[in-house]
Structures are given as structure tokens and as C-alpha cells.
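Ticket #4471: structure output looks truncated?

Reporter: J.K.
Steps to reproduce: submitted the chain below (128 residues) through the standard prediction queue, then opened the result file.
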Amino acid sequence: MDFLRPVISLPSMGDYPDTTGVWGMANTKVQIGRRIKELRKKAGLTQEGLAGLVTIDPHHLSRLERGIHYPSIDTLELIAQHLHVPLKEFFIFPEDETADMLRDRLVQSISIMDEAELRRAVTVIRPG
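Returned output as attached by the reporter:
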């Protein structure tokens, strides 16, 4: 019964790091979840706090942040609204950004800073 034996052996998901899927494609759920968590923390919110604003269970938000579930577009829009970010922010993965993209983001960030924030930014960029 050799004809029942598979011709090729496909890799299992465990053969890849948690940020990739079969054939090396990015695991979008994990990347979106990481962005939600990163932006939530940047906004100074806890999971419970953001979940309350978005009216979802904190456990559900935790599963979204860990990349276990995809957020619905409605949930993602509410999260974006309460984090005061455009929806596209969830699809910008810093580890995939080129140097030019990073420069553009830096220029955008600097353009809205007040003098005190600019002074702090300069000390971070050019210590001493």
C-alpha cells in the first residue's frame, strides 16, 4: 500500500518561529497583536482599562494581543479610536521597516513635538 504514503511531507507550524507561518509567511495575528499591545502600553493603558473602553472582555483582549485570535474590524476600529491612532498603525510592523520608513516616522513624530519634547528627543538621539 505504498500509494497511500504521502508523496511530500509538509512542515508543521511548530517548525517555525512564532512570528512566521507555513512557507515563511508572516503570522499576521501575532504581529497585529503585538502592535495592539505596544500601542496600548504607549498610551499608558492596562488591558483591563482598554478592554473597558472598547467594551470587550479583558481575556479577549489578551488573546488578541497574544495573536491567538484575529480582532474584528469593528473591534480594531474601537481600539484605534481609544488609543488615538489611525487604523493603519496596527499594520505597521517596526521590525519590517526600512531605514527610509523609520526616518519618515521620526520626522512625523518630531513635527508634532513641543520644545520640551524636542529637547528630550535630542538627548536620546545624541546623548551627552
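Triage note (M.O.): checked the attachment and the full C-alpha cell line is present. Residues 1-26 have pLDDT under 50 and may be disordered.
Status: closed, working as intended.
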